[in-house]
């Protein structure tokens, strides 16, 4: 299938359109809220919450017996919130550290959820088929009402973000200062945490419990590399998330036997990898290039300093010397010598070199600079 | 009467619990609990590739390959963290879902050749473990997973005894360990290797999530009860084995997943200890915080009396409005002060006694100097009215 045909299909085919829209909106909202999770150093909270939501789904099913995804998600939301606040309780009231608290709640809630799910499966009259889609996610089961639900939550989330933008931002970077300004930090904190839980719960149906944390983190981690501004980061993360959703859906739809969740996560991972390497200010590639350039500069200075020490001993600084005597010195190559010539610090004449006036001056300053740095 | 298979299931579960509790204790103490979660997910591609090669879920080669993937996870997380581009927790949260996704896709793309279920890897099924027997030259010597987890446990215990001192020092003071000549890096990667191997060895019996639960929950529960490393290890093993056996019977009663039931038992044990642990439990902490609040209130009240000689400031009714306390609280504080002979009443006018005068003078010293030496002997005075 070529790309043009696929794009036509996205607009004409109901299922494909629903899934594409759904994953794109999901990617956008998790990307937005994920930025806050990443900056608040709560990256693994998403993992814990998504696992903690499982018993809620099972209990909601046990109580209502309905498979209506909104009711199940409500159960997930409640249980996710209980998990989140228990994690906070453990961290603030005992000496157990946050990693232990996260791991505890994650595994204990998930295990309890599994107990309930297997219990439901053994019930004679229960039509439980479809509950385990929440484990690994099945984007194919998305229907239009799910997409509407996501759109509404995303809208609400955007509205709250815009309304409380200043408060969120200041709480993020200086919680103590926020408190002294008289903001109700507890309220803001609970508000943002609730929205993070909400976004995670929304994603369970599409990408599943296990992979949800990557949906939250990857777009935000990628966006972080390109900007230092919170607004820009949230915006970029939303774009990256949405693109991961669209591309992921496209790839899994055109291949056999590929579930959407893992593909979306891998696409998001590729965004992260690309950003890690190619971001201009923080990326590894440019960092390495700057590193090599600095090393070259240092070597150049070393060569110049060495020449200066030889030239110093002569009355005429431009007295020519044989290139050979530089051989003892490691920093010397034909390239660096040429570069010195290009900078007009050194003159070459056959096998001989001599310092120029300018080169001598620079070298003197170099020396002084080093001295003054030492002091 | 217990059948042979039932006994074997409980034996395997208990061995897994012990094998997990030992590295788990150190992971919790080293604040690396979430690494075990990451490892348990990211070994999936290792298991899949190993399965392509060996076609046997219990083959040593598969365990080795999967353990290597586990170590790869740790190395990747540390590499990403070292670049400074993201924080450690973000690095963990990025690495394992991506590796897990690769594993899921590998399975999906080779669905015809691989009889491997992602559910089975994540959740495990202990009930089937006794049916996969190890047969050596025609003799049935027991379930395969019993032998796998048994060998891992023996190696773990051997290493624990051999390197206990090194592990202890490097866990609590990495700097001291390094200066004594133990390489913290070797201990770190050794622990990571053991954790990976244990996770892999246990996953097909109990599943990846239960491995995480068995590593973290017993150790965290034990940590709430003791600060002694040896005792913590013993308690953790005890909680693990107890949950394993009681969890089995819970599953038996409910006809539900054994792994899920064991985790639920672990959760219940943790909840009980979390609430009722003598010094570090939530109830003990809340009670202590309440006492401290009362003590601070009492001190504020006494200092207020010392500062004001005028009668209007010392009238009982004034206290409610001025210090902004509720009636109940004022009464508690007044009673406490009376009981300790700090104050006396004279027609609803409160004043300090001799003892109260002396005490407040000391308290002001305490607040002003704020030196540890001066505080030491004061502490007894402060906590006088606790008993």
Automatic annotation (TrEMBL), chain A:
Record localization: Cell membrane
A Pfam family this chain is assigned to: ABC-3
Gene3D superfamilies: ABC transporter involved in vitamin B12 uptake, BtuC
Example of a GO biological process term: response to zinc ion
Membrane protein topology class: Multi-pass membrane protein
Primary residence: membrane
Residue intervals passing through the bilayer: 21-39, 45-64, 71-89, 101-120, 147-165, 190-218, 230-251, 263-286
Swiss-Prot/TrEMBL keywords: Cell membrane, Membrane, Transmembrane, Transmembrane helix, Transport
GO cellular component: ATP-binding cassette (ABC) transporter complex
Family: Belongs to the ABC-3 integral membrane protein family.
Protein name: Zinc ABC transporter permease
Species this chain originates from: Algibacter mikhailovii
UniProtKB/TrEMBL annotation, chain B:
GO cellular component terms listed in the entry, alphabetical order: ATP-binding cassette (ABC) transporter complex
Transmembrane segment boundaries: 12-29, 61-79, 91-108, 146-164, 176-199, 205-225, 232-251, 257-277
Topology versus the membrane: Multi-pass membrane protein
Source organism (scientific name): Algibacter mikhailovii
Identification of the protein by name: Zinc ABC transporter permease
Principal cellular location given in the protein's record: membrane
Keyword list, A-Z: Cell membrane, Membrane, Transmembrane, Transmembrane helix, Transport
Cellular localisation: Cell membrane
InterPro entries according to UniProt: ABC_BtuC-like, ABC_TroCD
Record SUPFAM superfamilies: ABC transporter involved in vitamin B12 uptake, BtuC (SSF81345)
Similarity comment: family membership: Belongs to the ABC-3 integral membrane protein family.
GO biological process: response to zinc ion; transmembrane transport
